[in-house]
From TrEMBL:
Residues 321-468 form the Acyl-CoA dehydrogenase/oxidase C-terminal domain. SUPFAM superfamilies: Acyl-CoA dehydrogenase C-terminal domain-like, Acyl-CoA dehydrogenase NM domain-like. Its EC number is 1.3.8.7, 1.3.8.8. It holds the Pfam family Acyl-CoA_dh_N. Residues 86-194 form the Acyl-CoA dehydrogenase/oxidase N-terminal domain. Keywords: FAD, Flavoprotein, Oxidoreductase. This is Acyl-coenzyme A dehydrogenase. It comes from Castellaniella hirudinis. It comes from the Bacteria.
Length: 781
């Protein structure tokens, strides 16, 4: 035994000696490892490399390193709107929302009204990301996000129409890569809405795999404005292009070839982005798709051998072939904002209206929010909405800090849209048939119809989860992996070896430290992981567990990369679950930050607790999923015992907590108002959302009368033979029996009229034509 111990000590000493001597380490360890690494690492194509290297690493880096610091999290400035931005939200956005009626847009006009188009253009909604110097609004990412979120609480066609020109497309690309001439010409026109942009990348043959587009251009000479110039003959066939049918400026991505060497000696220049006026000869636009009953403009575009000068290339001829890099570099900003904001808007609409509906609607002579089953669904609506908005704000804040958070943008795109789907589905379940029967009085059916659109666009969700979040995160956010890969692909092998030696041994140190910390935190349930700054005492547990989960994730990520290597790319389900862990940790961070930044509102605490506990449970499920499917079974077993020795630290949010969240969104007050801040709430009770607000207030204002009516009835004072003694007309019966004064009856009647408007659904002529007829008891009386 003593001999074995001595041998072990000797081996450790020898290893330490070799590791500490650079020359020995390189000779005996790093060089053979480097040679193997160079041999087995698949060569990356340029498009893969550009996609992986695009953007910046931000809070995701801290989570990947296993060391999220509470101080660093709270040192990130709390995003705030400027006065001008808030005024725009309160005035212009409010006004344009009032101009648009979703039902009319869908069923009658098949487009947003002309006056709304005009207002959007002249009030420079299309120029939110364009600097004031070019005539745009020069808004922060936060303001841009707030505008899209608010529009989404009103009408999807309106929100998509405004969202797309401010997302990845002509304006964004021009701002980063345009020549001065292109910027000076197009940006003011785009800002004023004189040009309507669209960006066409997707082809019928290349959707998710967009780099494979068959659309192509051939460099050649041709005639342009009466002169022979160097240009390109471009052929394309694109589909799904938002604003395509009405655009005046078409951004076009195609692969550019130079077979005759007119530009140099590279025959395949690569993906190229050009701006083509839609009235340019040969450009075919105008036909429309019909995306799930939504009326935003979307359609195909084609062109065959369309000659255009090289000056149409964004950034001019020198940017030929740089299109993929441009798209990848600019992707993060739009993806961080557009869909996370619009889905948060839909969630706010759901929380505001459905929360109130559960107070207005009675069944079994009980307000439905009091049923635990309904409260459970309300809790999901409230908790997820709180978290979604937290993630939206924190991520927009990152863009305002100059980040291009590539991995974070994929996280929020996927997880906010997926939570939006849960929220809207729950809302639909709660309001029952009211949500299903479409018509002017339906306030949620259209959001429900629109959910799959955002799931599919800007990187379809299955692909984003399976391939991008961890796939890109593992390389970008990991402190050493990218350096190791660069070293392995270095043109100069000796320089590569030196870089590899540094990166690899840094990696080993990093993994060892994290593994020790993760095991330590596992056994102590993260007791030593105290937050490094003052935080809300009721949240301390979550900061500790965030550190613990982050260290465990970093360990699991390293072990997965080490054991699965390149196969991890094919084992998408494992990669997806690793991405889920990283994502939940990001969402938890955003929720903790929101709670702190908003002054630790006690009334919001149930929302924050619910959201955080749910996200931790999802992270735990993902850990369990990875380990249950890990190919190396002994290693999986060891990791399970070491990382979670006492089992899962989190249980699903309790029923008591769910009831508290349900109360927060179904009672008037600060929590409900903060949760649904900047939702468009019309004051007109003829509008469905206006009617819910009015009915909600009326129900709460007549609570005392309602209680008295119940007492009166329970005391047996309503004559059994009175046919009005039913769920609809009880107040009339009680009034007749002397239990209500005339005034009180009138208040109950007014409340009932509003309530009946809310619970009423539209009906139409048998051929579904003509105006809808929605009557309420109030209308009938
Ligand atoms: C309403 C709408 C508006 C749009 N607007 C525009 C626009 O303005 N401009 C533009 O250029 N494009 C636009 N698009 C295109 C959109 O971005 C693409 O639809 C999207 O990239 C998906 O392509 P696809 O529909 O062909 O699905 P496919 O690529 O055929 O994917 C099918 C399924 O396979 C999954 N999948 C694919 N590859 C993988 C993988 N490696 N791992 C796991 N799963 C995978 C996907 O997630 C998806 O679920 C729009 C689309 C729609 C529907």
């Amino acid at each position: 035994m003593t001999f074995l111990l001595l041998l072990l000590l000797l081996l450790i000493a020898a290893a330490a000696f070799v590791l500490s001597r650079r020359d020995l380490r390189i000779k005996h360890l790093s060089r053979p490892l480097y040679q193997t690494f160079r041999r087995i690492l698949p060569r990356m194509s340029d498009t893969e490399r550009e996609a992986l290297e695009a953007g910046t690493v931000w809070w995701d880096g801290a989570l990947f390193r296993g060391r999220p610091s509470a101080r660093a999290l709270h040192a990130i400035p709390a995003p705030r709107l400027s006065e001008a931005e808030q005024a725009f939200l309160d005035n212009e956005v409010e006004t344009v929302c009032a101009m648009v009626n979703d039902w009319q847009v869908t069923r009658q006009d098949l487009d947003i009204p002309a006056e709304a188009w005009e207002y959007i253009k002249t009030r420079r909604f299309f120029g939110m990301i364009i600097p004031e110097a070019y005539g745009g609004l020069g808004f922060s990412a936060l303001a841009h996000s707030a505008v899209v979120a608010k529009l989404s609480t009103r009408c999807s066609a309106l929100s998509v129409t405004v969202m797309v020109p401010n997302s990845l497309g002509p304006a964004e690309l021009l701002l980063h890569y345009g020549t001065d001439e292109q910027k000076n010409h197009y940006l003011p026109r785009l800002a004023r809405g004189e040009d309507i942009p669209a960006f066409a990348l997707t082809s019928p043959w290349a959707g998710s795999d967009a780099a494979a587009i068959p659309d192509h251009g051939i460099v050649c000479k041709g005639e342009w404005q009466g002169r022979e110039v160097l240009g390109m003959r471009v052929t394309w066939d694109k589909r799904y292009i938002t604003l395509g049918p009405v655009c005046t400026l078409l951004g076009l991505a195609f692969r550019l070839y130079d077979p005759d060497g007119l530009l140099g000696d590279t025959p395949d220049l690569g993906i190229t982005c050009a701006l083509v006026p839609s009235d340019h000869p040969g450009v075919d636009i105008g036909r429309r798709h019909f995306p799930l009953d939504a009326m935003f403009m979307n359609g195909p575009t084609q062109g065959r051998d369309v000659f255009m000068p090289l000056d149409f290339i964004i950034g001019g001829p020198s940017m030929a072939g740089q299109g993929w890099r441009m798209l990848m570099e600019c992707l993060a900003a739009g993806r961080s904002i557009s869909l996370p904001s619009s889905y948060t808007g839909m969630a706010k609409l759901t929380a505001r209206t459905v929360g109130a509906y559960t107070v207005v609607r009675d069944q079994f002579r009980t307000r439905i929010h009091k049923f635990e089953g309904v409260a459970e669904a309300l809790a999901r609506i409230g908790g997820h909405t709180y978290l979604m908005d937290a993630a939206r704000v924190m991520t927009a804040g990152a863009v305002d800090l100059g980040e291009k958070p590539a991995v974070v943008s994929a996280i929020v795109k996927y997880h906010v849209t997926e939570r939006g789907r849960i929220v809207v589905n729950d809302g639909m379940d709660i309001i029952g048939g009211k949500g299903i029967c479409l018509g002017p009085q339906n306030f949620l059916g259209r959001a429900y119809q629109q959910i799959p659109v955002g799931i599919t666009v800007e990187g379809a969700n299955i692909l984003t989860r399976s391939l991008i979040i961890f796939g890109q995160g593992a390389i970008r956010c990991h402190p050493h992996v990218l350096d190791e890969m660069r070293a392995a692909q270095a043109a100069d092998p000796e320089q590569g070896l030196a870089d590899f030696d540094r990166a690899f041994w840094g990696h080993v140190r990093h993994t060892t430290c994290n593994a020790l910390r993760a095991v330590g935190h596992g056994f102590t349930n993260a007791l030593p992981a105290r937050p490094d700054t003052a935080v809300a005492p009721e949240m301390v547990r979550y900061y500790r567990q965030l550190t613990r989960f982050s260290a465990a994730f970093a360990t699991l990520a390293d072990v997965s990369m080490l054991t699965l290597g390149g196969a991890l790319k094919r084992r998408e389900s494992i990669s997806a679950r690793l991405g889920d862990i990283l994502s939940q940790l990001y969402l938890i961070s955003a929720t903790l930050k929101r709670y702190q930044d908003e002054g630790r509102q006690a009334a919001d605490a149930p929302l924050a607790h619910w959201a955080i506990q749910d996200a931790f449970c999802r992270a735990q499920d993902a850990f369990t999923g990875v380990l249950a499917n890990f190919p190396n079974r002994p290693l999986a077993w060891a990791l399970r015992v070491l990382l979670f020795p006492w089992g899962r630290p989190f249980a699903a949010p309790s029923d008591t907590l769910s009831m508290a969240v349900a109360d927060a969104i179904s009672q008037p007050g600060g929590a409900r108002d903060r949760l649904t801040q900047d939702a468009y709430v019309p004051h007109d009770p003829a509008e469905p959302v206006g009617a819910i607000e009015a009915a909600f207030t009326a129900v709460l204002d007549t609570q005392v009368l309602e209680a008295r009516m119940r007492e009166f009835e329970k005391a047996g004072r309503v004559p059994a033979a009175d046919p009005r003694a039913n769920v609809r007309d009880m107040a009339e019966a009680i009034h007749a029996a002397g239990g209500l004064t005339d005034d009180e009856l009138n208040r109950i009647r007014a409340r009932n009229a509003l309530r009946d408007r809310v619970i009423g659904v539209d009906d139409f002529a048998p051929n579904l034509q003509g105006p809808s007829r929605t009557e309420s008891a109030g209308d009938r009386s």
